[in-house]
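During the first year of the project, the team set up a workflow for recording each protein of interest as an amino acid sequence followed immediately by a discrete structure-token representation. This format lets reviewers and collaborators read both layers of information side by side without switching files. As required by the reporting guidelines, we include two representative entries from the current panel. The first entry is reproduced here exactly as it appears in our internal archive.
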Amino acid sequence: MFGVQIITLTREDADAMRDKSRAPHVVAVAAFARGSATIVWQDRSVDTNFSATEFSYPEVQNATLSDGRFFDEREQRGGANVIVLGWEVKNQLFGDEDALGEIVKIKSVPFQVIGIMKKRGTVAFENQDDQVFIPLVIGQRQLLGISHLQFIRLKVDDAANLAVTRADVETILRERHRITDPENDDFSVRDLADAVEILTSITDGLRLFLVAMAGIALVVGGIGIMNIMLVTVAERTREIGLKKALGATAKNIRNQFLFESGAVTLAGGLIGIIAGAIVSYLAALAARSQGYEWAFHISPLSVLLAVGVSILTGIIFGLYPAFKAARLDPIEALRYE
């Protein structure tokens, strides 16, 4: 499946893509014009998005209904005042009540509910359940006041035919829009590979940003630990001198301060793990409340890695204070005030 986006698209462009002699691998085509509005039923209302689309939407999107039916081609082309509710919209507006046959209003325009979509969750960062569907013609004329389409989605018979179908669609649109130079295209064609590439790029960029932020946080935190340990060494100079006078070796002193430094960062790491788990849990709850499928999960490996990095950070940044403490002369240390 892929899509064509731009404001110069028309319903006639979508019809041309259905021509099997021009685009033989296209299975289904659905044109779209979208907007947001408040849908009202009796004294209840819900803010949602509406998709003015075509009867072929379920086939293009592989969507199914839990109740009722989708509007047909006659209702679509005739601009019938019918509506199909997304799963979440139905529950917010009607609860457990039967919605089929009821009249709802969008911008004072009445629509009869003829179907309820099955719950789909989130696809490509879009909540599929928080929207409603109406025939394209009435959506364009009465709700949006436009004649163009916002985008067209197509379903191809096989993924192997994406490239050739993309070329077919580009040829059709260039001929219809009288474009001879591809550089002057007034449309863009995107397939699933493009979408995956964009999402991968965003994910990789976010991952790199988080790694950089984590690295900066570790360095800043490590410097803070080193300064704290240096202050500790200064405050405990007489204690260090006394321990050395009683037989403690430089190695004993060094190991003691390295242990203390590691213990401090370990405690900080454990607090961070607990705080991160709480934030992740709350984020998962918030995402699920918006219809996103976000499972709460903590990887044991991640916990072990966090603990290990915390201890290692403490040891690395505690080396200088530890060696400084180990090199103190016991006589001078005992004289320290």
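The second entry, processed by the same pipeline in the following quarter, appears below.
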Amino acid sequence: MSPNCKLQRLGLGWCNPTEGCCDVLASVLRSPHSELRDLELRDNELQDSGVRALSAGLEDPHCKLQRL
């Protein structure tokens, strides 16, 4: 993730992210450069593998997310 990216809020409701998208989101959550504080995933049908990837990102010490 670019250190110049200042994205703080991302709304992904109703878009059913794929496993690959969840992997990318997890890498954003783990990035020390990420400023993401608010991630909306309302009304999505996430696969188990996507949930596992996101969970790992949320558990990372670099994760700054405050609202999911």
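For the second entry, the following points were noted during internal review. Residues 12-59 form one domain. Strands lie at 9-11, 38-40. Both points are flagged for discussion at the upcoming steering committee meeting.
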